[in-house]
Amino acid sequence: MNLIEEKLRELVTESVSEEGLTLVDMTLIQQSSGAILRVYADKLGGITVGECARLSRKLEMVIENESVFERRWILEVSSPGLDRPLKTETEFGLKVGETIKLYYSDEAGNPAELKGKIAGAADNMVTINTDDGQFEIDLAKVSKGQIIL
After folding, report:
1. CATH code for the domain in which residue 7 is found
2. What pLDDT does residue 45 have?
3. Are the beta carbons of 85 and 145 closer than 8 angstroms?
4. CA 62 to chain centre
5. Which of 143, 43, 58 is nearest to 101 (CA)?
6. In this structure, are residues 12 and 5 in contact, taking their beta carbons and an 8 Å threshold?
7. Which runs of E-coded beta strand occur in the chain?
8. How much is the pLDDT for 149?
9. Total domain count for the chain?
10. ∠44-46-49 over CA atoms, to 5°?
């Protein structure tokens, strides 16, 4: 991570937190014509369009005040979306109560799937309630979780 990305991550993380949201992901794409900063934020129960707009205005002001970019830049702020795979403890924690299909490796290392509701995520584990009971899966063994609509 270069100095610009480090500074941006610091500014974005602080601003997102001040808005009562969680930073899910941030990407910076450098192009010859300028830069594109994509910020994905969420909260338990989901983020609203209004919250995205408010965060966008705040980030524009903070980033401009800090003079992070020397040339043209574009900011995109959005929710992670329902089709984005869940991978981290934070992402699973924000989706407690949602029905998902979880793809992981079982104890023998074989591919496995679970379908159920997210009951919790802590200590690098995700807990899933299924029709067959409750399962705790180590996040290191999870390839992804996909929300089922």
Report:
1. 3.30.300.70
2. 87
3. yes
4. 21
5. 143
6. no
7. 22-31, 34-42, 73-78, 99-105, 111-122, 125-130, 133-138, 142-147
8. 84
9. 2
10. 140
Give the pair of three-digit tokens for residue 39. 């910020």
Residue 112 lies in a domain: yes
Position 84 in a domain? no
Would you give the DSSP letter of residue 86? Answer: B
Instruction: Scan for tokens 């800090």, then name that residue.
Output: 66
By three-state DSSP, how is residue 105 classified?
strand
20 and 67: one domain? yes
pLDDT at 136 over 70: yes
- Same domain (yes/no): 95, 69: no
Does residue 101 lie in a domain region? yes
> How far is 133 from 135, CA to CA, in rounded Å?
7
Percent of the chain exceeding pLDDT 90 equals 83
Structure tokens at 46: 């989901």
Q: Which of 78, 105, 132 is where one domain is finished?
A: 78
Residues 8 and 69 in one domain: yes
Nearest to 87 by CA among 147, 130, 134: 147
Q: Which bin fits 100, alpha (ψ -120 to 50), beta or left (φ > 0)?
A: beta
Q: Is the pLDDT of residue 1 over 70?
A: no
